[in-house]
Design brief:
- The chain has about 120 residues and is of the alpha+beta class.
- It has a single domain (about 1-120), classed as Ribosome hibernation promotion factor-like (Double Stranded RNA Binding Domain, 2-Layer Sandwich).
- About 50% of the residues lie in helices and about 30% in strands.
- The protein is built from 3 helices and 4 strands.
- It has a 4-stranded mixed β-sheet, with helices on one face.
- β2 and β3 (about 50-60) form a beta hairpin.
- It is elongated, with a radius of gyration of 20 Å.
- The termini are far apart.
Length: about 120
């Protein structure tokens, strides 16, 4: 998976780049099926006046762009929350591509039909 990392108004610290690399490595497990089709752009910015950190993740996958944005006072916590949100979105996207959400809906409908059929007897 290709990626780019941008810092805005933030002094680049080694622990931040190391954390981003770790989180991207974890995210690569979920994008392995896309091979080289996935691209992620990470933007970390800081508002000095309010000491807020904003993290934006833009992930380009086939036929879709997934976006996760978080903001808060701790850089590490905000980055983890943003990557967790993107991981959740990737899971939903992959499930839709595999059409597993339809299989779950069909199974749920069959269960409900069985319950209403036995309840009416």
């Amino acid at each position: 998976m290709q990626h780019s990392l941008t810092f805005k108004h933030v002094t680049v610290k080694p622990y931040l780049t190391q954390l981003v690399d770790e989180l991207l490595a974890h995210l690569e497990e979920h994008t392995a099926t896309f091979e080289d089709d996935a691209f992620i752009h990470v933007v970390i910015e800081q508002n000095k006046a309010r000491t807020l950190f904003k993290v934006s993740l833009h992930c380009e996958v086939p036929r879709r762009t997934l976006v996760a944005r978080e903001e808060g006072h701790g850089a590490v916590a905000v980055m983890r929350e943003a990557f967790d949100e993107l991981e959740r979105q990737l899971g939903r996207y992959k499930a839709k591509r595999r059409r597993t959400h339809l299989r779950k809906q069909d199974a749920k409908r069959k269960d409900q039909a069985a319950e209403t059929g036995s309840a009416s007897r």
